[in-house]
């Protein structure tokens, strides 16, 4: 049995930022996309995207690349490290924005381009224990759960079967949820995303090309220094974010504790107030009862003085002497 070795590669976000925009390296992205989308993906060109331009204020928490494939579809691949509460809303905005950008004013709606949004995330988005999620717009009947299809005329015109093939499509890869066991060729890519490494046994499409162009050992000294600086800066940025999150969490926990103490005191004060009112009411009724008892005793003594026996008084009034 051949020994399994592991080759160390540059991080995938660096690859997206620096290496995979070259036409000579399209094979890498084509391989990953083919495995994820279960299709033979061919990239025609890299389009302008948020991270295409370089400037000194570049962030280290997110990089993206936007490409057009041979089916004239727009595929956006984004790599993000920082937690973002409104990430789902941003996905919706991004896909809608790209649709609008690629439809000129006056063009018919049939010219709307298909957008596929692929998000490689290093934070826990939403609740779920899987590591790959796919989102589509599917129209199901409310009474019989049948799936709405396109008409014959629409199928001929658009070369599609379902509305979901027209609407944006979303993929969320939660890298940290992957358990490191590659059970499929797609898992081999997820392993690369998580560990910046591939095993010699991996056979996924494009993975061999990735091992060649992403190999750290093939970088020049200058390239390695730039890469190391990028990784250090990314770590610093992440550490700063995590520190800010921890600080904010402690602040919120202190505020919650303060509110709990305040409510606890108010509750205790309210309890003490009701307890005192209850005791006062009890004392009042006890005093009234005692006064009535004294009056009855006085009446019994009067009856006794007027010749009634104790037995008669008890039988007629219930007062026991």
Structural overview:
With 321 residues, the protein is α/β, with parallel strands linked by helices. The protein has a domain at 6-218. Helix content is 48%, strand content 13%. It is built from eight helices and eight strands, in the order E-H-H-E-E-E-H-E-E-H-E-H-E-H-H-H. The protein has helices spanning 12-19, 26-37, 87-101, 152-158, 185-195, 207-213, 221-305, 310-317; strands at residues 6-8, 43-47, 62-69, 74-80, 115-121, 132-135, 169-174, 197-199. The protein has a six-stranded mixed β-sheet, with helices on both faces. Helix 3 links the parallel strand 4 (74-80) and strand 5. The protein is elongated and about 125 Å long.
What would the principal axes of the Cα set say about the shape? elongated
**Spatial order of strands in the largest sheet:** 2-3-4-5-7-6
Number of helices: 8
Order of helices and strands: EHHEEEHEEHEHEHHH
- Tally of strands: 8
Mean pLDDT: 86
Segments where pLDDT lies below 50 for 5+ residues?
Answer: 53-58
Instruction: Let me know the largest β-sheet.
Output: 6 strands, mixed
Between the first and last Cα atoms, what is the distance in angstroms?
108 Å
**Could you tell me the strand content as a percent range?**
5-15%
Estimate percent helicity.
40-55%
Evaluate the radius of gyration. Answer: 38 Å
The computed structural class is alpha/beta
């Amino acid at each position: 049995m051949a020994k399994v070795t592991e080759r160390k590669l540059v991080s995938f976000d660096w690859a997206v930022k620096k290496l995979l925009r070259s036409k000579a390296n399209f094979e890498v992205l084509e391989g990953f996309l083919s495995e994820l989308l279960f299709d033979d993906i061919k990239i025609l060109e890299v389009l302008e995207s948020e991270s295409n331009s370089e400037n000194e204020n570049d962030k280290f928490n997110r990089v993206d690349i936007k490409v057009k494939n041979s089916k004239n579809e727009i595929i956006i691949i984004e790599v993000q490290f920082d937690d973002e509460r409104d990430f789902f809303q941003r996905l919706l905005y991004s896909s809608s924005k790209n649709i609008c950008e690629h439809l000129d004013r006056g063009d018919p709606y049939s010219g709307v381009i298909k957008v596929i949004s692929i998000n490689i995330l290093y934070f826990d988005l939403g609740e779920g224990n899987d590591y790959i999620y796919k989102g589509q717009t599917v129209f199901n009947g409310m009474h019989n759960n049948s799936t709405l299809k396109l008409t014959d005329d629409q199928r001929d015109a658009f070369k599609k079967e379902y509305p979901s093939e027209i609407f944006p499509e979303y993929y969320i890869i939660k890298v940290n949820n992957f358990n490191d066991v590659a059970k499929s060729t797609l898992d081999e890519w997820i392993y690369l995303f998580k560990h910046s490494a591939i095993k010699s046994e991996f056979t996924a499409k494009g993975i061999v090309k990735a091992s060649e162009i992403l190999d750290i050992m093939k970088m020049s000294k200058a390239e390695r220094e730039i890469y190391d600086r990028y990784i250090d800066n990314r770590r610093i940025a992440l550490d700063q974010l995590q520190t800010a999150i921890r600080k904010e969490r402690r602040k919120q926990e202190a505020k919650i504790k303060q509110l709990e103490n305040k409510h606890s005191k108010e509750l205790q004060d309210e309890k003490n107030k009701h307890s005192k009112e209850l005791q006062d009411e009890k004392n009042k009724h006890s005093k009234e009862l005692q006064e009535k008892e004294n009056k009855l005793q006085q009446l019994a003594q009067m009856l006794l003085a007027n010749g009634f026996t104790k037995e008669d008084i008890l039988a007629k009034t219930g007062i026991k002497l």
